[in-house]
Write a structure and sequence with these properties.
The chain has 25 helices and 13 strands. It has 619 residues and is of the alpha+beta class. The structure holds alpha-D-glucopyranose (GLC). InterPro entries: 6-hairpin_glycosidase_sf (IPR008928), 6hp_glycosidase-like_sf (IPR012341), Glyco_hydro_100 (IPR024746).
């Protein structure tokens, strides 16, 4: 039973770290038995069967709202056997202080660093000597750790010593924590990640409203803060509370669509790196995953398998003209679906959801491969497009006017290689190169092998534009002049070649490293890491760099930005241990390629558009 008392969350931490019901080596040997337990547990929630019905139906969960804040916890009352979930303990109400951890007590439990498959986890960072820069980075990363009721639950976005106005940079961002989590996991320190995943799961169920309207229940916050508040009527006593931001305080009030996707990706990474699959098998984790998936897979007015979102719903979290179907969200969506497909316990209650995931994966990869990909050949095709075609077998399906091909692209597109464009809408292709989306199409195999190779070839070829003096450009090129004014609304933070508008973000290096290792080109990543390594420590680990070639520290960049630090450390460890990197990416799944459920046969009046498509490449 999960109690409604918020302070009880504090007490739960102890149970989480001790909640593995079986000795670790026992678990590995007895996977079958655990499977049975998981099935017993999932039978318990089997009332909710179909994808559609789960959105509204909560027959296995009694949800009730607790008063107090604008953002309130919805408490899920779940009766479970064999799963030691959240319990009260005698520390309740005693008042624990928020601390910025000095790192000395993070994950000190030696046994946990063994992991369930100890050999896969690094005992020390690596065999080579750890450089001074890495030592400094580890020290700063540990200083960024946030404690909740005495246990580490995440890392703050930045601790800039000179920052008088931290805004929300003193919060734990879901997306920012991912590289921190990987650095800790690769070092064999798992507790902070487990705590983070379970605490954010609690936040997911909070009821949240903006002007009396509530977004879907599965929404994960963009960030959260640990506050220490005085206890009513108890002099001098206080307690820690978690205060999430679902977008209701965020600049622009954007819903963080990527948070839930990152959360799912991290749950999988936790299992893969530690070998502890009991976390993903937990009923509450399975339920959390399903809530996120229900939100993403629910029916709407969409004509495409891509997710329709507002501007600023991901890493680029303010207006940059990426509303619609931005590549970053699609690539993370695809990755999260692939993770879920591996992790969902399959039984009667989830079989429809699993089928929906498979169908979406298949349709999404077709759509992105076919319509988002551009290279020399495709641009030339678009250049000669006819418009106003009315037919199901139109060549120019989205009615793209050739004039939309921007001037910069005509000379920029290389003879070999290519990339996925930033967005696709009716009569609109956003030809900008967005790095995060392209890297995740490689990592998740959303792109074909040939396309993925093509992206790395393009980055290599356009090194001076995309990597330049500091890896890597968040997007290329910048919006300038009138276009900047219209598209960003004249945003003074997103001026040309600054911040989201063509700025350089060192945190992207870890994802670049992962993509390079996957494609067998680690030397490219090494080159980028070496470039960053020379400057990051001297420049005090800035959030981003400005100017066309990334030469200046960003105008409003925070220093000691945690995901810059963690991204660097994660890249170093991935390069040292490519075998661990390989647990974090996916290869082509041929089963998905064969899957088409549109019901339109090869013969007959209407043809399946996938069968008539000309350029779908399986290789
Ligand atoms: C900025 C970035 C966002 C990041 C946040 C915290 O808002 O755009 O991606 O999560 O800072 O670092």
């Amino acid at each position: 039973m999960i109690s409604t008392n918020r302070s009880i969350f504090c007490g739960s931490d102890l149970n989480w770290t001790q909640s593995e019901p079986f000795p670790t080596n026992w678990v590995e040997k007895n996977n079958r038995f655990l499977g049975i337990i998981a099935n017993v547990a999932s039978n318990f929630r089997s009332h909710s069967t179909s994808v559609e019905s789960q959105v509204k139906e909560n027959s296995f969960e009694n949800i009730f709202i607790q008063g107090g804040f604008n953002v309130k916890p919805l408490v899920i009352e779940t009766i479970e056997e064999n799963q030691d979930l959240l319990r009260t303990d005698d520390r309740k109400g005693k008042g624990y202080k928020v601390e910025i951890n000095d790192g000395s007590n993070v994950n000190i439990d030696e046994s946990s660093s063994e992991g369930l498959s100890g050999s896969r986890i690094l005992k020390s960072t690596h065999e080579r000597e750890v450089s001074e820069v890495e030592k400094e980075a580890w020290k700063l990363l540990r200083e960024a750790v946030v404690n909740y009721c005495g246990n580490p639950v995440g890392t703050v976005a930045a601790i800039d010593p000179a920052d008088k106005q931290p805004l929300n940079y003193d919060q734990v961002f879901i997306r920012d924590f991912v590289p921190s989590a990987l650095a800790f996991l690769l070092k064999g320190e798992r507790d902070i990640v487990k705590n983070f995943l379970l605490h954010t799961l609690q936040l997911q169920s909070w009821e949240k409203t903006v002007d009396c309207y509530s977004p879907g229940q599965g929404l994960m916050p963009a960030s959260f803060k640990v506050r220490n508040v005085p206890l009513d009527g108890r002099d001098g006593e206080s307690e820690d509370v978690l205060d999430p931001d679902f977008g209701e305080s965020a600049i622009g009030r954007v819903a963080p669509v990527d948070s839930g996707l990152w959360w799912i990706i991290l749950v999988r990474a936790y299992g893969k790196i530690t070998g502890d699959y009991s976390l993903q098998e937990r009923v509450d984790v399975q339920t959390g995953m399903r809530l996120i998936l229900n939100l993403c897979l629910s029916d709407g007015f969409d004509m495409f398998p891509t997710l329709l979102v507002t501007d600023g719903s991901c890493m680029i979290d303010r207006r940059m003209g990426i509303h619609g179907h931005p590549l970053e969200i699609q690539a993370l969506f695809y990755s999260a679906l692939r993770c879920s497909r591996e992790m969902l316990t399959v039984d009667d209650s989830t079989k429809n959801l699993v089928a929906a995931i498979n169908n979406r994966l298949s349709a999404l990869s077709f759509h992105i491969r076919e319509y988002y990909w551009v290279d020399m050949k495709k641009i030339n095709e678009i250049y000669r497009y006819k418009t106003e075609e009315y037919a199901t077998d139109a060549i120019n399906k989205f009615n793209i006017y050739p004039d939309q091909i921007p001037h910069w692209l005509v000379d920029w597109i290389p003879e070999t290689g290519g990339y996925f464009i930033g967005n696709l809408q009716p009569a609109h292709m956003d030809f900008r190169f967005f790095t995060l989306g392209n890297l995740w199409t490689i990592i998740s195999s959303l792109g074909t092998n040939k396309q993925n190779e093509g992206i790395l070839n393009l980055i290599d070829d356009k090194w001076s534009d995309l990597v330049a003096q500091m890896p890597l450009k968040i997007c290329f090129p910048a919006l300038e002049h009138e276009e900047w004014r219209i598209v960003t609304g004249g945003d003074p933070k997103n001026t040309p070649w600054s911040y989201h508008n063509g700025g350089s973000w060192p945190t992207l290096i870890w994802q670049f490293t992962l993509a390079c290792i996957k494609m067998g080109r680690p030397e490219l990543a090494r080159k980028a890491v070496a470039l960053a390594e020379n400057k990051l420590s001297v420049d005090q680990w800035p959030e981003y760099y400005d100017t066309r070639y990334g030469r200046f520290i960003g105008k409003q960049a925070r220093l000691h930005q945690t995901w810059t630090i963690a991204g660097y450390l994660t890249s170093k460890m991935l390069l040292d241990h490519p075998e661990l990197a390989s647990t974090l990416f996916w290869n082509e799944d041929y089963e998905l390629l064969e899957n088409c459920v549109c019901g339109l046969g090869k013969s007959g009046r209407r043809k399946c558009s996938r069968l008539v498509a000309r350029s779908q490449i399986a290789a």
